[in-house]
Structures are given as structure tokens and as C-alpha cells.
What does this fold into?
Amino acid sequence: MANASYPPPIQGHGLVLRPWDEDLVRQMAAWGERGFPYSAFDLGYLKDPQRARTKLAWAREAGPHRHFVACEGPRAVGRLSVNLRDTAGLYLWGVHVPPEHEGRGVCRRMMAAAMGWLEAEYPASDFILTSNAFSERAHHAYLALGFEVTETRWHHESDLAMQLWKVAPAEREALSPFLRFSNGRWEVRTHVMKRKRGAPMALSPGRRGEVPSGTA
Ligand SMILES: CC(C)(COP(=O)(O)OP(=O)(O)OC[C@H]1O[C@@H](n2cnc3c(N)ncnc32)[C@H](O)[C@@H]1OP(=O)(O)O)[C@@H](O)C(=O)NCCC(=O)NCCS
It folds into this structure.
């Protein structure tokens, strides 16, 4: 059934962005998982019918957030969400492409399609996102799309902090440049990135951007 909070499917760059539905939830439940340190993105828990129903209801709520699945034809290949009412700007989050679809520009293409729609619908706003400093692939995509790092700060992220207590020391060590233990809790270095509406976007692979060293 159509949901009044959502636009007709957003088309662009070889993708169609659609709101979550039962079929797409089933597909996302079967996506490959990455595990630590990206466990918060993994969706295997949607194989549980009860959790799938709850999450679908959450994803279709009429509130500040819109949750999209990027599809190639009928196939779900990525997802992203946007908070339309964040005071800092259109806040993109939950950007996720499963391992079996990575490296084909799905991230860049779905973000470009979403931002094209958002620029038309919300012409007064620029874009903002936050990203853990170790997510280097994501940064390549964001910088190629015209985002710039405006601030780097320490942030307590509860999912990641919980995992940090559980993983082997070697796994934690691999992230050590980006972690600190402060006031009894784990914190991760996090970039705030902003993009002005209309900023140029490079969609083809290999347009490498680096987060300037001073900010990382
Ligand atoms: C980050 C993520 C969304 C990227 O998705 P994607 O569709 O593979 O992204 P793109 O194809 O647009 O590529 C982004 C960059 O990652 C690189 N990349 C992607 N897959 C790669 C791989 N297997 N090996 C090496 N580099 C890879 C690409 O080359 C590209 O860099 P470039 O522009 O310099 O060539 C995806 O890896 C993911 O979901 N990761 C886990 C969750 C996450 O980190 N989300 C972002 C949180 S802020």
C-alpha cells in the first residue's frame, strides 16, 4: 500500500529508491554481514519474523525520518535514511551497501539520487552526516559527492562500545588510532561532514578523496 509520507519511487543513476516493504525486508535479511566494527549495520536479525514486522513498522512511520532501499530492478542493493528535521540540515544516516554489492558505486549512486530528490523537495537545506573515522571507504564516497569534513570529535556510540568489550584484543587493536577510553567508556573519533546543496558530485569510481590529516 502506498505511504503518503513517501514520494513516488526516486529514479536515478541506475537505481530506484523505494520505501521499505515486506519483500525488501526479506531481501535485506539475506544480505551478507560484515560483523565488527560494522555490526550495527548488519540486518540478519530481520530473519526473525517478529523483528522483521517491528522494524518494517518502524521504517514506515510518518515522522522526521525517511528510510529508502536502493534497488536495481527488483533487487535490493543498498539502503539509506534521512532525517528531514535535524536543525543542522538534511541528515543522511544508515548508509549501507552489503558486501556482495560493494565496489560498484551503489553508495555514491544512491546518495546522489537521494540528494537530487531532497534538493528539489527541501530547497532551503544543505546536507550533513557523521561518520566514524575508520570508515575509509565511506569517506571516499562522501568526498567524491562533495561533502567536506567540518569537525572531528570524540563520540560515544553505544553499539560499537558494547562490541569493543566483547571482541578479541587484536580486533580492537586494529581500530586503536580511532579509539580512546575516557571517563569509563569507549569513544570513537567521528567526522562531521557537510555538503552544500548543488555541490558537484563525481560518480565514477576511483575519484579518491582523502580526509585532510589535521582532521583525522
Ligand atoms: C561504505 C559503503 C556504504 C560503501 O559502499 P559501496 O557501494 O561499496 O561504495 P562505492 O562503490 O560508492 O565506493 C566507495 C569507495 O569504497 C571503495 N571500495 C568499495 N568496495 C571496495 C573493496 N571491496 N575494496 C576496495 N575498495 C572498495 C571504492 O573503490 C570507493 O572508493 P573510490 O571512489 O576511491 O574508488 C559500504 O562499504 C558499507 O555499507 N560499509 C559498512 C557500513 C558503513 O561503513 N556505512 C557508512 C557509515 S558512515
